[in-house]
From TrEMBL:
PANTHER family linked: CALCIUM BINDING PROTEINS, KV CHANNEL INTERACTING PROTEIN 1 B ISOFORM X1
Gene Ontology biological process terms, A to Z: regulation of potassium ion transmembrane transport
GO cellular component: voltage-gated potassium channel complex
Gene3D superfamilies associated with the record: EF-hand
Keyword Nucleotide-binding applies: no
Membrane-spanning segments: none
InterPro entries, per database record: EF-hand-dom_pair, EF_hand_dom, Recoverin
Xref: Pfam families: EF-hand_8
Occurrences of domain EF-hand (ranges): 81-116, 117-145
A GO MF label: calcium ion binding
Protein name from the UniProt record: Kv channel interacting protein 1 b
Protein source organism: Cynoglossus semilaevis
Keywords: Metal-binding, Repeat
Amino acid sequence: MSRRDSKVHFFPISADKADDELEITTVCYRPEGLEQLEAQTNFTKQELQILYRGFKNECPSGVVNEETFKHIYAQFFPHGDARTYAHYLFNAFDTTNNGSIKFKDFVLGLSILLRGTLTEKLEWTFHLYDINKDGYINREVREHF
């Protein structure tokens, strides 16, 4: 797999366009502690820069609330109503339970989902489905999803 094939694009950015932007311009948005995020995730510095640019493009304030998250998520699933699932997905990314997702929250979760170990992915998924945070996934969970 080439480096170009391993790029991660959460927001709709073509690989060629992203490459061109990186070659032509200096990265406009650079999250504080980029090296720290690189050490905490399974993303390269270049991938983090691309992800951050997409995040800031969709959420200029640098923070996404639940309604904005649902709107963005719905763009990936235009057929049907994904609001309920997006609500639980938002809660899984909102690890501080403050009603917002910062770039760090987003990229840490995305790193696990896309490149984490099997154990990390299972733990993250369990957290997603443990909707009442009691350490169990009950039958009622199926009704929510």
